[in-house]
Amino acid sequence: MVQRIVFLGMGGTIAGTAQTAGDNVGYKAGQVGVADLLGAVPGLQTVLGDSLATAEQVCQIDSKDLAHADWLSLLERVSHHLAMPEVTGLVVAHGTDTLEETAYFLCRALAPNVLMHKALVLTCAMRPASSLAPDGPGNMADAATVALQPGAHGVLVVCAGKVHNAAHVQKVHPYRVDAFDSGEGGPLGLVEEGQVRLLSGWPEPDVGQTRVDVAGLRAQGWPRVELVTSHAGASGAMVRALLQTADEPDPLRGIVVAGTGNGTVHKEMEAALLVAQQRGVRVVRVSRCAYGQVVGSANTSHSGTFAAYGLSAVKARIALMLELATREVNIS
Ligand code: SIN
User: Fold this and answer.
1) pLDDT tens across 212-261, in order?
2) Do domains 4-198 and 214-331 have the same CATH topology?
3) Which of 4, 112, 168, 251 is the one with CA 20 to 30 A from 83?
4) Residue environment code for 254-277, b if the CB has 16+ CB neighbours within 10 A, otherwise e
């Protein structure tokens, strides 16, 4: 059987164009189709070897505008292709701005068995396709190298020669080409001259994790979870404003608070969050620190009554939405 690798396009800077080739900032994301992006990858055939490549456009957007429905569209296409026996791996060309969120969502929504032997590699670029020195073609080639690597599996992110675990990766720089970081664990591996050098193992699928009810999400919509940040001089105003939206057609179901240090929350905001919690809104706290996660449950006064998630704030928001959706489905 001839093996196949599928490239899915979501838009982003990798598919962006500017009026002038020297402009790496004032461009429009999501302009070039994924098939054309593939055509611009030098030496792609060498990377592919005997494997075939197919390209499919799923979305064509600036990822800052990504909607939950786009995740479901992508999930549907990814699931379709992963189920094909001849497909050895997938590459998704995505905008950098919300790439870590999409990667985490896919990681949670795909059944572990479909990722046991195949790699789903998200890649991106920090310079538009029209740039004098675009980084997209190299990242696409590296992503394809990883997707074809024997033994590679799980949801991965490849950028600037580094292979990251979807669960840990974060965009950490608004301009640098090497814009992603995996925190204390570091990258899983490197791509050097077309060769993968693994620094640790491929991510193991979390078979024990509650499966996300995707059909439920499609049918019932996404539970609304909002994000607030605690800081010096914080008040309860943001939380109280959110509570006023609790009865809208899309009611407030959860709040993630990015807390200071070890997930602590300003006493004014904490008081408002306790009211929210009493009214049935799920409150989850995380640390706003770039590295590490909330340690232990103890901290000042009441913050400890809010569950702490060991995720970044944006990933915790996804985790809470999925948890609430699954719970709703289980109850009904
Ligand atoms: C986007 O996220 O779609 C635009 C920014 C980027 O890809 O770097």
Assistant:
1) 888 889 988 999 999 999 999 999 999 999 999 877 788 999 999 999 99
2) yes
3) 168
4) bbbbbbbebbbbbeebbbbbbebe
Whether ligand 1 lies within 6 angstroms of the CB of 236 is answered as no
Residue 20 CA to ligand 1 center (angstroms) comes to 18
Residue 128: pLDDT band with limits 50, 70, 90: very high
Is the domain spanning 214-331 CATH 1.10.3860.10? The answer is: no
Q: What is the pLDDT of residues 290-327, one digit of tens each?
A: 999 999 865 555 566 899 999 999 999 999 999 999 86
Domain ranges of the chain: 4-198, 214-331
* pLDDT one-digit tens code per residue, 62-91: 999 999 999 999 999 999 999 999 999 999
Q: For residue 281, give the nearest of 259, 312, 248 by alpha carbon.
A: 248
Q: Is 148 in the pocket of ligand 1 (CB under 6 A)?
A: no
- 270 CA from centroid of ligand 1 (Å): 34
15 lines ligand 1 (CB under 6 A): no
Whether ligand 1 lies within 6 angstroms of the CB of 124 is answered as yes
